[in-house]
Amino acid sequence: MAPRDRPRTAGDRRGRGPAVTARPRGPAPSGEVRIIGGRWRRSRLPVGQAPGLRPTPDRVRETLFNWLGQDLMGCRCVDAFAGSGALGFEAASRGAAEVVLIERVPALLAALRANAARLGAQGVRIVGGDALAALAALPAGVWDVVFLDPPFDDARHGGERVYAAALQAAARLLRPGGLVYLEAPRAWAPDEVAALGWHLHRHLRAGAVHAHLLQAADNPAP
């Protein structure tokens, strides 16, 4: 899946669920995330509490979904290390036909399930457990976008192994042209991602966050 070029499938038009009351513009307060685009735009969702939780900033999400083309109608997405669910719910809001959110922390998992119910998010599936194990259990070759945003503390303590293992797991999942979003506490250089079999398509730095959009070097768009 190249940016701004997404498949439209028979599963595109799923139930939209009940309307969610929008609130005024502006950054969401601590303990909430704000959906910034799509049918749930400006909805604010409570976030569970967990040490080191760091939802993807609004500015970074806005840039990411500009890269992806705003409208994700018909796409199938995976949000591994879901945390607040900001990326997965944003994708669902923008029309993704199926979104799988993976989270291991019980408090965050409960908040994800409550928010999915609140939104009436029929195309969203929430999976509890280890992200790498859950990725390995998903069907191969059918996903358009995989979001990888491991906790920065995990990444620092586990070194590059966390990212390398997650990228390897994601590569199996993607359909031709599929994309991976990688969020990290440092920039990954083109030669580093190339050594793991990826092409660096886009990069953004916003404070301590480095956002990368990757495409598998051996799995280009048809």
From TrEMBL:
Coiled-coil stretches are: none
Region (Disordered) residue ranges read: 1-31
Spans of biased composition, class Basic and acidic residues?
1-15
MF annotations from Gene Ontology: methyltransferase activity
Identify the InterPro entries for this entry: RNA_MeTrfase_RsmD, SAM-dependent_MTases_sf
Q: Which UniProt keywords apply?
A: Methyltransferase, Transferase
Protein's recorded name: 16S rRNA (Guanine(966)-N(2))-methyltransferase RsmD
Q: What biological process terms from GO does the record include?
A: rRNA methylation
User: Has UniProt tagged this entry with the keyword Membrane?
Assistant: no
